[in-house]
Amino acid sequence: MPDYIQNTYNTLNSYGFDKGKTIGMVAICRDEITDTLMDKVIKYWGKTFNCCSLAGFVMMGKTGLAAATDHTPIIDGKRRFTFYAMPHIAISKNGEIGKVYRSGIQKASHACGALEAIVKELESGSLQLIMDMQDIEQSIIRQKILSRLKYGEKPNLVEMTKLVSQMISQDVNKLLSSLDNSIFNYAVMTGIQIHGLLDTHWIYPQDFYVVSSDLAGAQKNLK
């Protein structure tokens, strides 16, 4: 993960994204073990707008985006921001998928717990389809995921995490497409945050692209 963040930073420098005239935006899971990604984005990009929700889904909507973009500095008539959005998954020291041993807790806990709960519901055939006003984010996540599955599909946690990564990428693209590219230049990085043994953190990359009026075609996919 440190290499990933540094590489995206170095690459974006050549497109005019510099610390001081660019704000970071991060949409990752609320889980405290994802803080390492947030901390790295803050280190490289400075002030960063928190767009987090359960499982890393982008729940901010148009109102949240309006707030985030309104906080973006105007330099040379342009507003620049970077947007990192991704779910997460853990691999324990024993090779267990979705399990993590947190400091001070003897038994294994879950990452991502929100996605694992839906995986287990699908396995059991008992789905909580009613909107729970005391659990709105999880209710929305469940509905969004079910809308993407075919009847009878029961993805495991790895498959579910990859599906959610694709969904988040599409949600980000749709949300940001409403922005005026003559004013806003932005970069999007999506993928999966992976928590490994010995407190290591990795990124499984998916999308990396820049949208700018300075580019032919407005958007350029990067490696």
Automatic annotation (TrEMBL):
<protein>
    <submittedName>
        <fullName>Low-co2 inducible protein lcib</fullName>
    </submittedName>
</protein>
<dbReference type="Pfam" id="PF18599">
    <property type="entry name" value="LCIB_C_CA"/>
</dbReference>
<feature type="domain" description="Limiting CO2-inducible protein B/C beta carbonyic anhydrase">
    <location>
        <begin position="2"/>
        <end position="211"/>
    </location>
</feature>
<dbReference type="InterPro" id="IPR040703">
    <property type="entry name" value="LCIB/C_CA"/>
</dbReference>
